Amino acid sequence: MKVKEYQLKVNIPELKDFSTDYPHFASLAKGRGSVLFKVLMQPSSFIRCKIATELGHSAVLGIADICFQEAMKHKGFEFDDYIKRFIGVTVSALMNANGYKLIPGNKGRKSIPHPQFRKGQVYEPK
Questions:
Q1: Would you list the DSSP string of 55-67?
Q2: Which of 8, 65, 68, 120 has the most CB within a 10 Å radius?
Q3: Residue 4 and residue 26: Cα distance in Å, rounded?
């Protein structure tokens, strides 16, 4: 068996940049959402989102379960609609930083087969 190495350069937005681009979510990224921000702003999270996108799914499908499981590790963490929107915006920042753009309109939203999410945005290469 041969072993081959695969490398992919991934741009990871920093908290400062995210806070500037998404000021409505800055305090959440620095506060109770910081555990999810740290999980999402990893090369492995982008790769998961990229694979979900390439398979024709919403990008958030790639990280939905990881985010939910991480949130459940923290006693009293509320996985509410605001957190779900924060996850979506954070995924958007990650996808945009790596050369993807939202597909506009209804074509850009898909149902997600995950109990905690209903729909998510679909991306395509810029």
A1: TTS-GGGGTHHHH
A2: 120
A3: 40
Residues 48 and 84: their CA atoms lie apart, in Å, by: 17
Q: Is 0.85 surpassed by the pTM of this model? A: yes
User: Among 66-75, 95-104, 105-114, where is mean pLDDT lowest?
Assistant: 105-114
Cα 80 versus chain centre, distance: 16
For the cut 70, the answer to whether the pLDDT of residue 10 exceeds it is yes
Question: In sequence order, what are the residues at sequence separation of 6 or more whose Cβ sits closer than 8 angstroms to the Cβ of residue 121?
Answer: 58, 59, 60, 88, 91, 92, 102, 103, 108, 109
Task: State the residue for tokens 């050369």.
Answer: 99
What token pair was written down for 95?
Answer: 């996808």
- Beta-carbon count within 10 A of 41 CB: 20
122 three-class SS: coil
The single-letter DSSP state of residue 107 is G
